[in-house]
Amino acid sequence: MGEVTADGHHLDLTDAEKVIFRKFRVVASPQALEGLRRTQRVLERAVEDERPIYGVNTGLGKLSTLRIEKNELLSLQRNLVRSHATAVGKPLPEEVVRGILLFRANSLLKGYSGVRAEVVTLLLEMLNREVYPVVPEQGSVGASGDLAPLAHVALVLLGEGKALYRGETLSGAEALRRAGLEPLGELLPKEGLALLNGTACMLALVFLGYVLGWRAFRAGILAAALTFQALRGRTEPLDARIHDLRPHPGQREVAAVLRELLKESELVNTFHGDVQDPYSLRCLPQILGPVLETLWLVEGRIRVEMNSATDNPLIFPDGTVLSGGNFHGEILAFVAEWLAVALCELAASCERRIALLLSASDRGLPPFLAQEGGKNSGLMLVQYTAAALVGENKVLAHPAAVDSIPTSAGKEDHNSFGATSAWKLWRIAENTVRVVALELVCARWALELAGAGKLSPGTRSGYKKLCELVPPPGEDRYLGDAIDAVTQSVRKGEIGHGL
User: Fold this and answer.
1) Which active-site residues does the annotation give?
2) What is this structure's pTM?
């Protein structure tokens, strides 16, 4: 198993993917841990001087006008973790929780949160030893950080709450014990707030949607190239001269990739019944190019957020303590909404090509790709399922980021609802993976009927992989396992064009 070093400044998307999806170990940079000690000492001096510091010696939210006595400062941190753990709903999946642990630890390692090295070390050891706090998926309003979900994480650091360890849901204390870890005996001033007052939950959901989105896009390009050949599409619309006259980078890139994938195909340009193909073939660069550009766009935003200090207040080595709003999730809300719309369009284009494949009798394919149609229904219902998923995506694409409900008696009067945006993105990404897989299943059958021996060299290996997962057309049979196998292959990034 590989290893990634976290220091709060240089975590990149490739390393995050290795940690979250491939379970690489994470170690904290010794220099970053030393930086934690410096700002912790600054905070200790400020507390001794009885300087008013939000969430350290004051109440929280609307209660920030109330001062907390010195002998109650530790109680405040423990109490806020317990009181804020009010999230509800299904537990977030393992990949999201791994992302939460990684991103919260990396943010604290930036060195402006005033926490001890022991706090970060325990977060990382929970990640490395696969102690996953049970974090319900609903409860964050995307400002003041992901307070409720992150409180469920912080509970486990105290030996409270619940955690999943080796497939078993246990008390936080028991999960830590079985993994050979000790809970924190107490939380020092600001440590509870620093654990809760960040964007790690939103970010983990956005990152999951981003990775699945890329995997769906790469598989979607392959699916489009296979469908293009099964339908004997015209390659004229891919001509570089067309795209040079509307030189959006994503459009030009998709056109170039498709030209390469379709090169030397003996199937394309063999249908002469019309001079123009339907949009879902002819306009592939114009449809998928913006999806690609959106993926490029959000990369930079995620990279910045992964290496940012997102709690409040922030502690500086020169002794300054500043209150601000880096916990506000507006940028992640926007990122999630942008990418959600893009992935909806990727899935919608796949569904339209599925419909073409199943109704292309004029292009030499039997209705629904069924042999002896009537007795057999072929892949008729695959389009129903794709339509259902695309329909669900349309509902989920309604933006959560355009409205705000105030909290804490109006003190927190504009919330981003970025956690809802990110949750929707994750659901849309999972649906899109499935719709891409359904197009691949249909393309596998269609090409068997159209003449797979005439495929372009650039798509043969992808088609061969599909043939290993999906049986050939014939008598109606149960295809659920084959569909699931292709779906998992797309989700794991095992099939597709390597853009």
Assistant:
1) 54
2) 0.97
